[in-house]
Amino acid sequence: MDLKHILYVEDEPDIQAVAKIALEMVGGFTVKICASGEEALREAVAFAPDMILLDVMMPGMDGPSSLAGLRALPELAAVPIAFMTAKVQPAEVAHLKSLGALDVIPKPFDPMTLATQVCAIWEKRNG
Amino acid sequence: MDERDALKTVQAEIAQLRDRYVARLPAEVTEMTELAGRLKGDENDRPTLDFLRHRLHRLAGSGGTFGFHALGAKARLLEQEVSQWLEDPVLADGPTLEHFGDGIASLATLQGAGPSGPAAVDVAMPPAPASGQPARIWVVDDDELLGGELARLLAQFGYVTRLFTRFDDANAAARAGERPDILILDVLFPDENLNATEALFRGSALDTLGCPLLFVTAFSDFPSQLRAARLGASGFMEKPLDVPKLVDRLERMHDTSPATPHRVLIVDDDVDLAEHYRLVLTAAGMEVAVENLPEQVMERVATFRPELLLLDMYMPGYTGPELATVIRYRDEWLSLPIVYLSAETDLDKQIKALGHGADDFLTKSISDAQLLASVRVRVARSRQLADLMSKDSLTDLLKHARIKEEIDIELTRAQRSGKPVCVAMVDIDHFKLVNDTYGHAVGDRVIRAIAHLLRQRLRKSDGIGRYGGEEFVVVLPECDEVMAKAILEDNRERFGALRFRHEEQEFACTLSAGVACANSGQTVAGGDLLVTADEALYAAKHGGRNQVRIGQVGAKATAGTT
Question: How far is CA A18 from CA A6, A12, A34, A40, B256, in A?
Answer without folding.
Answer: 14, 10, 14, 19, 22
